Amino acid sequence: MTDQAIRLDGVTKAYPSFQLGKLDLAIPKGYITGFIGPNGSGKTTTMQLIMGLIHADQGAIRVLGRSMDQDAITIKDQIGFVYAENPIPENFKIKQLENIVKKAYSQWDTGLFSRYCDQFGLSVDQKIKDFSTGMKFKLALAIALSHHAHLIILDEPSSGLDPIVRREILDLLQEEMLDGETSILISSHNTQELEQIADYIIFIDQGQVVFNASTLDLRDRYRLVKGPVELLEDPEIVALLEGIQTSPHGFKALSQDTQALKENYGQALMIERASLEDIMYHTVKGDSHESTDL
Description:
- This protein is α/β, with parallel strands linked by helices and about 290 residues long.
- The chain has two domains: about 5-215, P-loop containing nucleotide triphosphate hydrolases (Rossmann fold), CATH 3.40.50; about 225-275.
- About 35% of the residues lie in helices and about 30% in strands.
- It is built from eleven helices and 15 strands.
- The strands form three sheets. Strands 6-7-8-3-9-10-15 form a seven-stranded mixed beta sheet, sandwiched between helices. The protein has a four-stranded antiparallel beta sheet with strand order 2-1-4-5.
- The longest helix has 14 residues, at about 165-175.
- About 35% of the residues are buried.
- Pfam families: ABC_tran.
- Keywords: ATP-binding, Nucleotide-binding, Transport.
């Protein structure tokens, strides 16, 4: 078995107004990986490629140790996915829906599906059209988890959910990781939640991977620096900053060398831990970037 859940080598996909790649990307097995980037950055296209919903123009895609070109049917049988807007037939009841869905998966587990429905408080006698947004998401997640998938892919899993449901979902996803065999890829704009649960973060922008790093490495590497604009007249401090943003009140920027900043500029600066949102914002708004694996 490979130690990578997903691997992309030289993958490209071109549209009239957008170019993805070339992407070189490795996602480790047995971890939660967060997938972030601005709207239109290529997240959806990349996830569609990984799920075999569209074909790459160039490059190779391997999922769970298999080639998407050669073993697409086997791969899809081992993937559970949940979209932000789930295309679930709403006139059905849960049992009717299960009778349709289970035919698509060789390892469908009726007992496990029933357990998740009970755990989520889903009524088997109620039509899906009468479910709340949170209940519909729970149903989609129950389906994704009930055929012993080795890879779970979620697109904006907390979108439109209340805080209690979001916390319940996040706790469940972390429980799924305990066997060390399940891998989870989450595309989300909620960077705060990803910081809490993701082991790795992939940041994509303008069709290119900006970084693919462990969450711990990102926390250790980056700091958010604030100070008066006048300091930016010194080229030595500018050389230590990334993604500088200015306002009438001062500047904010990222830095990977705060020791030098402290030694040379001391009390003139405020230095604090950079959140994932800070890193994403200043990287996008700053200079052009090259892919970095940390």
